[in-house]
Amino acid sequence: MPQLRMPRQAPARSAATPAVAPDAIDTSFLESLLGYNARRAALAVIEVFLERMAPFALKPVDFSVMSLVTHNPGITSRQLCTALGILPPNLVGMVNALERRDLIVRKPHPRDGRAMGLHLTPAGEKLMRHAEKTAAALEAEVSRGLSAGELKTLIALLKKVYQPA
Amino acid sequence: MPQLRMPRQAPARSAATPAVAPDAIDTSFLESLLGYNARRAALAVIEVFLERMAPFALKPVDFSVMSLVTHNPGITSRQLCTALGILPPNLVGMVNALERRDLIVRKPHPRDGRAMGLHLTPAGEKLMRHAEKTAAALEAEVSRGLSAGELKTLIALLKKVYQPA
DNA sequence: TATTGTTATACTCTATAACTATA
DNA sequence: TATAGTTATAGAGTATAACAATA
Q1: How far is CA B152 from CA A158, B159, B161, in A?
Q2: How high is the pLDDT of residue B8?
Q3: Which nucleotides of D are covered by protein (CB under 7 A)?
Q4: Which stretches of chain A drop beneath a pLDDT of 70?
Q5: Across B27-153, where does the E strand assignment appear?
Q6: Between 20 and 30 A from A29 (CA), which of A74, A83, A160, B29?
Q7: Rounded to an integer, what distance in angstroms lies between the CA atom of residue A100 and that of residue A121?
């Protein structure tokens, strides 16, 4: 579709109000907010995560799913959704894609005919051995400005925020 | 969250090593990762933010834009994009919506005919006085599990992650 | 030639309703 | 009836290319 050019407004130039754009931006209020800082930090980590995990073609949520299947063989889709805060319809495509890549398999649940247990394939096990090592190594990289003690403190404090006792 | 059992892969019919879905999910590896914890914490804060900010009809990004305009009168779209990590095409709709709500106005930049400086309207100023108070108040609520010193430490450590010195 | 703001557009992520088959 | 998994789909959020006006 051709876009009509619509020069929206012809503003009068009022010299009375000096509409000056500041050249140094004051972000101090936003930076005082926990939510703002948590979001920026999460995005910074995820950015590095995407780079380092590109060889495995695993996005953060894919990795989370694969990691839970790794450490919880037979976990069901419903359990994955609860643990990760994913809605069931949105998990289906991820699991399908991981199964098509021969990284996981669905097996019938032994005691619930409605459910399917998820398990790693040998290829999935091999990939996750490397992927979890890479994820752990990336932690060190992204937290290189923090001491080991500070990193431990940071993670403990973050848990207190989303897992209030 | 303890893991109670951990059967490795087994044939579906083997009673000895059944492919049982674990009833307690082991999330210990994910919880050791900074990125996972930062994302979960950020989402927890944002959830409360959406509730408390609903009366102002400001989502987190809208609030960030409004707050920067509040403390930086005349700020340009380009500066907002740089400060908040938003892409210019995605800011246009937000600014249009805020302008339609009579919360901000575009004024011509005094020294750059291409740019538009953004300013609060009186209605925008009034709304932001309440909104920033509400934002500060919900900080206390969401960090009620932390002492004042812990909250300060947490924010300082988060800054170190996304603002490496 | 480079930059600001903009349009169009595509792709991803997330959310809701409804269906099936089992319980 | 309630739940696990699924389908279809709608709505946000985020991405790139390209254009007009201005520097």
Answers
A1: 12, 11, 15
A2: 20
A3: 3-9, 12-23
A4: 1-22
A5: 75-76, 104-108, 116-120
A6: A160
A7: 11
Q: Residue A111 CB closer than 7 angstroms to strand D?
A: no
Determine the residue type at B85: G
pLDDT digits 0-9 by tens, A64-94: 999 999 999 999 999 999 999 999 999 999 9
List, for chain B, all residue ranges whose pLDDT scores fall below the cut of 50: 1-19
pLDDT of residue B32: 96
Alpha helices in chain A (DSSP H): 28-31, 34-53, 60-71, 77-84, 88-100, 122-142, 148-162
List CB-based contacts (under 7 A) with strand C: A 1, 3-4, 6, 8, 59, 61, 86-87, 89-90, 112-114; B 76-78, 81, 88-89, 91-92, 95-96, 106, 109, 112, 114-116
Is the distance from CB of B60 to CB of B93 less than 8 angstroms? no
- Domains of chain B, CATH where assigned: 29-140 (1.10.10.10)
Q: What confidence tens digit (pLDDT) does each residue in B31-63 have?
A: 999 999 999 999 999 999 999 999 999 999 999
